[in-house]
Amino acid sequence: MDIVFNCPHCQVELEVEASAAGESIPCPECGRTIQIPAASPSVPAPKPPPPPSSAAPSTASTPEKKFSVPMSNQPVEPLIQKAKPSLKAQAKAEGKRLLRLKTLRHSDCKEVGKDLFDDIVSDFLNGIGEDNLISITPINYSYVEMGTQKLINDFGLAILYRD
After folding, report:
1. Residue 147 sits in which domain range?
2. pLDDT tens-digit series, residues 144-158
3. 84 in a domain, yes or no?
4. Is residue 3 within 8 Å of 37, Cβ to Cβ?
């Protein structure tokens, strides 16, 4: 049986084995020397809880929990709304075709030592088809180049097409 006591100096709760009763030890909290008191026979050690059994628990040991469920005569609104279909899905369901806009910037079409702008524009236009093409508009724009921190003027295309 363990001895549980408080340090007389800092009041920290300590627990030691009963065999150490009467010894002097330094308090682990304040470092001052304390004497371990003798075990008090009047205070029995707490019993460990009984292991859970497979039998049904008795009503005396388990308090009955009462829950109330709110009742209503009106229809209940869902707490989580269903996501709305995307514009593309709506248009497809209605038999419509969406207008789409694609912006191709010249600066995004450069690789190390190669300018791929013409190839990328050609591939995109071939992918959408001539029948779906509505307009091609040239654009001019400026951006700050990260390496030199200079303002660079560049160009690109805005392509309007049916999806």
Report:
1. 97-162
2. 988 899 999 999 999
3. no
4. yes
